[in-house]
Amino acid sequence: MIKKSPAGVAFTHPEKVFFPANDFRKGDMVAYYLEAAPFILPHLKNRPVTLIRFPDGAKGEHFYEKNAPRFHPPWLKTFAVWRSSHEGSIDYILINDVRSLAWCANLAAIELHPFLHRAPAIHRPTLVAFDLDPGEGSTILSCVDVAFWIKEVLDGLGLKSFAKVSGSKGVQVYVPLNSPRATYDQTGGFARAVAELLTERHPDRVVSNMSKRLRKDRVLVDWSQNSEGKTTVCAYSMRAKRDEPFISAPVGWDELRRAKKPDPLFFSPDQALSRMKKLGDLFAPVQTLRQSLPKGFAAAPALGEYARKRDFSRTAEPPPKAAPAAAGKERNFVIQKHAASHLHYDFRLEM
Q1: pTM reported for the whole predicted model
Q2: How far apart are CA 329 and CA 158, in angstroms?
Q3: What gap in Å lies between CA 116 and CA 129, rounded to an integer?
Q4: Using CA atoms in the order 155, 157, 158, 164, what is the torsion angle rounded to 10 degrees?
Q5: What is the CA radius of gyration of the chain?
Q6: At 72, phi and psi to the nearest 5?
Q7: Residue 280 neighbours by CB distance under 10 Å
Q8: Nearest to residue 104, comparing CAs of 184, 154, 21, 37?
Q9: 20 to 30 A Cα–Cα from 68, which one of 16, 111, 147, 206?
Q10: Which residues pair with 92 in a beta bridge?
């Protein structure tokens, strides 16, 4: 249970049962985050975060909270991000210290999902993420196989990678970049290229298409996480996917190689804390290791395929170019008259 409350944070209803299978209570959840703070905070620092709140526990209703609640304390840091589809901005919470983490935990934010970028450089991802999701007939061990296939590709490109279990049912592979020149156009294109390569090599085991009907007996390599608008569960975050709490915990490649059964790849809060004390932060290099993606993968495949099919020396139509809108500004658009095989008009929206 909670040993000490950080200054300025009052905990409410610590006795409320959040996970009925093992009588895991809200106070136990808050206590976990307080003890895990030295390990999870480096992975949250300056990253706008989406909270997934479960006021009545894992079996109750839940909701995603992006905007900091109006009642948030004045010391809680936030970062405004211009909305893509509505007027105004979203004031995302920045969990940069223990009391901010404790305050969010007291909101029943069981799950913490940060962006792949840090504020204020919200157009610059610091890493590439592959989220491996097993379809019907597959298990977390199937995801382990696919994780090693991804690692094989990355090793061949001279890129170091790090793995963690999702705490739900899959595995995630991260490629740290920490480059001031990285863009989501590059990381998204790279992740998609790797996912489609694995689909070609292992068509009976891997799928890169999001359609659920294609996932049976296969593992989805979700490359779409590498988007400016998407978040991914944080290392050491608790998950609320099952009757018991499990942690999205970093794992070593040797550890994954030895896994013969699913159970050892699911870590309770106590097991995760024991691992932190014994192994330290296995994900620490993700925060500092600087790497560059190979130039051949820099362009998004969808745009590259389109460009290859067009001869721009024979048409006045401009070639495709992806350009993120500046934060805080409205997006520009163009309506273009296009006299090709038949007359029509293109609507081009800045993304």
Answers
A1: 0.83
A2: 38
A3: 8
A4: -50
A5: 22
A6: -65, 150
A7: 11
A8: 37
A9: 16
A10: 79
Q: Are 76 and 68 in contact (CB under 8 A)?
A: yes
Place of tokens 């450089």: 121
Start-to-end Cα distance in the chain: 47
Whether 247 and 239 have beta carbons less than 8 Å apart is answered as: yes
Which amino acid would we find at residue 208? S
* Token pair of 109 as six digits: 């934010």
Residue by residue, what is the 3-state secondary structure of the chain?
A: CCCCCCCCCCCCCCCCEEEHHHCEEHHHHHHHHHHHHHHHHHHHCCCCEEEEECCCCCCCCCEEECCCCCCCCCCCCEEEEECCCCCCEEEEECCCCHHHHHHHHHCCEEEEEEECECCCCCCCECEEEEEEEECCCCCHHHHHHHHHHHHHHHHHCCCCCEEEECCCCCEEEEEECCCCCCCHHHHHHHHHHHHHHHHHHCCCCEECCCCHHHCCCCEEEEHHHCCCCCECCCCCCEECCCCCCEECCEECHHHHHHCCCCHHHCCCHHHHHHHHHHHCCCCHHHHHCCCCCCHHHCCCHHHHHHHHCCCCCCCCCCCCCCCCCCCCCCCCEEEEEEECCCEEEEEEECC
Reported residue count of the chain is 351
Per-residue pLDDT of the chain (351 residues; tens, 9 = 90+): 666 778 779 999 999 999 999 999 999 999 999 999 999 999 999 999 999 999 999 999 999 999 999 999 999 999 999 887 777 899 999 999 999 999 999 999 999 999 999 999 999 999 999 999 999 999 999 999 999 999 999 999 999 999 999 999 999 999 999 999 999 999 999 999 999 999 999 999 999 987 777 888 899 999 999 999 999 999 999 999 999 999 999 999 999 999 999 999 999 999 999 999 999 999 999 999 999 999 765 544 444 454 445 554 555 555 554 444 444 446 677 787 766 556 778 887 865
Instruction: Extract long-range pairs of 343-351: CB within 8 Å, 24+ residues apart.
Output: 350/323, 350/325, 351/322, 351/323, 351/324, 351/325
Q: How far apart are CA 145 and CA 218, in angstroms?
A: 11
